[in-house]
Amino acid sequence: GSLKSEGELVDAMENGMWKEYYDSGKQKAEGSYSNGKKLGTWKLFDEDGQLMRTQEWKDGNMISEKMIKK
């Protein structure tokens, strides 16, 4: 199979920087987790590797999202 995501687990919860991937192997997203909850800025990419949007997260809740113009 192909890699879906990579990052550090602490007590079975995501922590620190994580990357997620499409089935093609290209990067889909990157951002940080704290105790299993998304935190801070997340970047989301299309399958061509172009930045599509950014999201801001706090305590696992998305507080804003910005689309990137191509």
Task: Describe this protein's structure.
With 70 residues, this protein is mainly beta. It has no helices and six strands. It has strands at 5-10, 13-21, 27-34, 37-45, 51-58, 61-67. A six-stranded antiparallel β-sheet has the order 1-2-3-4-5-6, with no helix packed on it. It is flat, with a radius of gyration of 12 Å. The termini are far apart. The model has no long low-confidence stretch (mean pLDDT 95).
List the SSEs and their pairings.
Elements: E1 5-10, E2 13-21, E3 27-34, E4 37-45, E5 51-58, E6 61-67
Antiparallel strand pairs: 1-2, 2-3, 3-4, 4-5, 5-6
By helix and strand content, what is the structural category?
A: mainly beta
Helix content: under 10%
> Element order, helices and strands?
EEEEEE
- How far the N terminus sits from the C terminus, by CA atoms, comes to 32 Å
Determine the strand fraction and express it as a percent band: over 45%
Strand count: 6
Number of helices: 0
| Main β sheet profile | 6 strands, antiparallel
Strand order of the largest sheet: 1-2-3-4-5-6
Task: Average the pLDDT over all residues and give the rounded result.
Answer: 95
Shape: flat
Low-confidence stretches: none
Radius of gyration: 12 Å
List keywords for this structure.
70 residues; mainly beta; six-stranded antiparallel β-sheet; 67% strand
In summary, what is this structure?
The protein contains no helices and six strands.
